[in-house]
Amino acid sequence: MKQTIGLLFIFLLWGNFCRAEIRIMPLGDSITEGGYEKRPGFPTTEGSYRTSLVPRLLSLNSKLSFVGSREAGPTALAQKRHEGHSGWRVDELIAGRVYARSYERGIRSWLPTYNPDIILLMIGTNDILQNYFIDQAPLRFQKLIDEIQRLTPRATILIASAIPTNNDHLNAEIEKYNSEIHSFVLSQRSQGASIYWVDMYNEAKMSWRKGDFSDGVHPSALGYLKMADVWFNHVAPFVSASLLRASLRE
Question: Cα–Cα distance between 215 and 167 in angstroms, integer?
């Protein structure tokens, strides 16, 4: 009898495993959104790093689903959903953004709606570009992570450092910001939080002088390929583990 119950449990678990869909949410600003290559004759950046990352991850696991309220990417990109919002700062991801005649909600709307298993987060560049109380940006980032964890306590959060620009002064501020949020991630990890550091700034080795940027802030197609490589190296190990966790959740 016990053996029969055990086999039945394994059968049900395997059935859920086979049906499980893993939801991945790219979350951030215009660098996540893509499409800011305006130079004539240069390859499009519509779809950002997702254009290269999505098919590579799908080749590992066909049950992945990229989610978000927005959709952008080239025709060949099978899954175009994301939460990349041009010009948005850290605090706006939490509270939303007020426009002249409208209001767009933030993660308090998106996360409950799409319930992602994995979140690919890169945010903070606009806080520095807009010189918006830069010293308080790491604290705002901590509040953002607290809110993400409250809204999606089972999600795995991969946090990418902000990438460089073509301005040395801005890069110094970006490096300081990255260092502080890295320390925060390490602190969270020591407490058992499911958040992980992706050192995009150093691992992608992007440079204006190498043709990795289209306008000094937004990556070129070449820059996005480098970003996709880094994301893939960090996300791939979580795909199968997240698949099993999702099957147990159903």
Answer: 11
Residue 244: predicted pLDDT? 44
Question: Residue 54's pLDDT band (boundaries 50, 70, 90)?
Answer: very high
Q: Which residue has the tokens 């197609």?
A: 221
Token duo for residue 233: 């190296």
CA–CA separation, 207 vs 160, rounded Å? 17
Q: How far is CA 74 from CA 17, 38, 61, 106, 183, in A?
A: 31, 15, 21, 25, 37
CA–CA distance, 206 with 167 (Å, rounded to integer)? 13
Contact in structure between 206 and 213 (CB atoms under 8 Å): yes
**Would you kindly state where each structural domain of the chain is located, as residue ranges?**
21-249
Q: How far apart are CA 104 and CA 147, in angstroms?
A: 17
Element (H or E) spanning 119, and its range? strand 118-122
Q: Note the pTM of the prediction, 2 decimals.
A: 0.88
21-249, CATH topology level = Rossmann fold (3.40.50)
